Every structure is written in structure tokens, then in C-alpha cells.
Q: What sequence folds into this?
């Protein structure tokens, strides 16, 4: 199977590529714009095992050359950090909406057999109790999640209007190796490794449902293989934690105390809680494998052992 992975030099996309190259016979092409979040070092362990194209999913001309010949396209390419979307939304609308539309059109023109649009639980907004199933209304509340919702809707519109065989996956918060150190888990781990304080938003009561990136990528692979075109699939996390609880676990893991926590004003429009019902995906045979405490301990070890990967990213202006 020839698979095009867009955004394959980012955190989740690179995990997908590393496992596809090492565990499957798939022939992989990575297309990535190498924004601040894209990093060829993420693909170093499988260098030589895939073809790389440096480019933008908004570039229709490039896509017309690159997409044909692929059986499957998995789209991870996006601007992904909520705080950056608050500082400036335009790149988010461009990559996450226009980029998705441009890619869907290229997939349609090329007759791609299966497309997976990788998305997020954040498109639903915030939920105080209970969980969303795939029929819940989209109520995004940040420029990031609004742009992702736009991308999801254009992808699904291509399924209905043009019969494009596209599935959308929506997942909770991922953690694991090679995550850019602006996101909370790698930011807190690397700050503590450097002896610096960690910034905790607001009252720390915001709840996230964490999933190891390997479980997310196995779920995407299952949707590639057996997902019904035009359908949305949830990939729920394995550990629902307040940011305070998460911070406590990270402090314990790094041998630090609460004096290393600096309270900072809350993020504007900060969603309180996300929660997905993943029964539909589980009916296809999916189950997560990585227990949170084991996955978190392995992730802490990975950052401790790989300062050469993250230190330059933290030092670089971006
Ligand atoms: N990180 C999470 O917790 C999480 C959870 C659910 C869903 N998602 C979704 O998964 C996808 C991947 O997330 P991530 O955390 O790996 O993000 P990331 O920011 O680490 O990586 C994004 C990648 O996309 C590339 N990219 C950005 N704009 C591009 C463009 N216009 N053309 C080509 N490449 C472009 C970047 O260079 C980078 O390599 C995103 O679509 C995100 O919305 C992420």
C-alpha cells in the first residue's frame, strides 16, 4: 500500500511514520511544510525508509504531482497549538481549513482510495459531565478548534457531495516522545529537567483525557483499514485528569515539589473538560494498550535521555 502522510514530521505524524516503516510493508511518502513544529529529526530513526517532500498542503499544484499514485492519504498537517491560535488565528485558518480543502480536492482528483483526516475532541467545545458521541454538535471555542472543525466539515462535505472515501478521527490529548516542548507534558518535563518552574493555568481544574501517541496511531491505522467512508470515529483517552493532578504526577516523576509550580492567569476561553465516547471505534476491535502511568514514566525517561532533541527547540526563537 502506498501511503501519503501529510504533516508526517510533526509529533503524531512522525510516530505514525516511524511505526509504519518499522512494522508494515507500506511505502510511505511524507509531505510536510516543516513549520516550527515540523522536524526531520523526528524521522531520523527511520531515515531512508520513506520518501520526503518538503511542501505545503495549501499548494494545489504541488499536490497534483505528489498525491497521484497513493492508495491512502492520512492528514496530520495542521497548526496545532491553542495558545498560538489566540495570538494569531490566520495561519490556523489557512492550514487547517484551506489546507484540508486543497488536500481533499487533490485526493478526489487523484482517485485516492482512502483518506483519513486526523482531528480533535476540541471541535465539540467543553462538556461538564458525560461524554460526546460522534453525533454531538460541533461547538468549537478557540481559533484552533474552530479551524479544525472547519477542516472536518469540508472533509465530510467532500464525502457527501463527491463520494470522497474520507473518514475523520477525533482524539483526546496525546503525549509521548518527540512532542514539541510547548505542549504541557513536554514543557513541564523539560522545565523541571532544567530546574525551572512550570506555569500552571488558572485554578488547575481543567480536565483532559490523555492518550499515548502509540494508541492514537494504532486507532488511525484501524480506521485506514476498516473505517467506513464518510464516518467520524472517536479515539478516547485512558486517563481523565485535572491539570493539577497531571502536574502532581509530573512533579513526583521528576522528584520536584509544588514550589516549582508558578500559577499563571488562565488561557482566555479555556475549555474546562473534554470527554469522548469511543464505543464506535471499539466495535471495530480497537482498545488502547498503554496504561497512563507506564506511558508517562516512559515519556519522562525519553525526555531525560534526549535533551539533544529538545534543548535546541527550547532555545530557538519560534
Ligand atoms: N497533539 C494532540 O494532542 C492532538 C490531539 C488530537 C488531534 N490532534 C491533531 O493531530 C494532528 C497532528 O498533531 P501534532 O500534535 O502532531 O501537531 P504538530 O504541530 O506536532 O505537527 C504538525 C505538523 O504539520 C506540519 N504542517 C503544518 N502546516 C502545514 C501545511 N500547511 N502543510 C504541510 N505541513 C504542515 C508541521 O510542519 C508539523 O510537522 C493535527 O491535525 C492535530 O490537530 C492532535
A:
Amino acid at each position: 500500500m502506498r501511503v501519503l502522510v501529510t504533516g508526517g514530521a510533526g509529533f503524531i505524524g512522525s510516530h505514525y511514520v516511524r511505526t509504519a516503516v518499522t512494522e508494515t510493508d507500506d511505502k510511505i511518502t511524507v509531505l510536510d511544510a516543516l513549520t516550527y513544529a515540523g522536524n526531520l529529526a523526528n524521522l531520523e530513526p527511520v531515515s531512508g525508509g520513506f520518501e520526503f517532500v518538503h511542501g505545503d498542503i495549501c499548494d494545489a499544484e504541488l499536490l497534483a504531482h505528489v498525491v497521484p499514485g497513493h492508495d491512502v492519504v492520512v492528514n496530520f498537517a495542521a497548526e496545532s497549538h491553542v495558545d498560538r491560535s489566540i495570538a494569531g488565528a490566520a495561519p490556523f485558518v489557512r492550514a487547517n481549513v484551506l489546507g484540508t480543502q486543497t488536500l481533499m480536492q487533490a485526493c478526489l482528483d487523484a482517485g485516492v482510495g482512502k483518506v483519513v483526516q486526523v482531528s480533535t475532541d476540541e471541535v465539540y467545545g467543553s462538556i461538564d459531565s458525560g461524554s460526546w458521541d460522534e453525533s454531538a454538535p460541533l461547538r468549537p471555542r478557540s481559533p484552533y478548534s474552530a479551524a479544525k472543525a472547519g477542516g472536518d466539515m469540508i472533509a465530510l462535505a467532500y464525502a457527501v457531495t463527491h463520494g470522497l472515501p474520507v473518514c475523520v478521527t477525533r482524539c483526546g490529548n496525546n503525549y509521548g516522545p518527540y512532542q514539541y516542548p510547548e505542549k504541557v507534558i513536554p514543557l513541564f518535563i523539560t522545565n523541571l529537567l532544567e530546574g525551572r518552574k512550570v506555569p500552571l493555568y488558572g485554578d488547575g481544574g481543567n480536565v483532559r483525557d490523555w492518550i499515548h501517541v502509540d494508541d492514537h496511531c494504532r486507532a488511525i491505522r484501524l480506521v485506514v483499514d476498516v473505517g467506513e467512508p464518510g464516518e467520524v470515529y472517536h479515539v478516547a483517552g485512558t486517563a481523565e485528569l485535572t491539570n493539577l493532578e497531571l502536574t502532581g504526577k509530573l512533579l513526583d516523576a521528576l522528584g520536584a515539589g509544588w514550589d516549582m509550580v508558578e500559577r499563571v492567569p488562565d488561557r482566555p476561553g479555556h475549555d474546562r473538560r473534554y470527554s469522548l465516547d469511543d464505543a464506535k471505534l471499539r466495535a471495530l476491535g480497537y482498545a488502547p494498550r498503554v496504561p497512563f502511568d507506564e506511558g508517562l514514566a516512559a515519556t519522562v525517561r525519553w525526555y531525560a535521555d534526549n535533551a539533544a532533541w529538545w534543548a535546541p527547540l527550547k532555545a530557538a526563537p519560534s
In short: The longest strand covers residues 114-120. Residues 90-110 form the longest helix (21 residues). The chain has a mean pLDDT of 97. The chain has two domains: 2-174+212-235, 177-208+239-272+292-313.
